[in-house]
Amino acid sequence: xxxxxxxxxxxxxxxxxxxxxxxxxxxxxxxxxxxxxxxxxxxxxxxxxxxxxxxxxxxxxxxxxxxxxxx
Length: 71
Description:
The protein is of the alpha+beta class. The chain is built from three helices and three strands, in the order E-H-H-E-E-H. The protein is 61% helix and 14% strand. Strands 1-3-2 form a three-stranded antiparallel beta sheet. Strand 2 and strand 3 form a beta hairpin. The longest helix is centred in the C-terminal third of the chain and has 25 residues, at 46-70.
């Protein structure tokens, strides 16, 4: 079950994804990753971040496969 412990702040999300905080702020503002702004703080759900990473990996693999077909 989902709990509040699954909600990460920017520091926790940065450590979890191993991405710099400025990158996370940029991606959150641009809507490139699942996040919500609560007052001055950004919040991230751990499961949604995991799903986002998997999606990014799948899309990158598809792009590489398409490039190989074109060669």
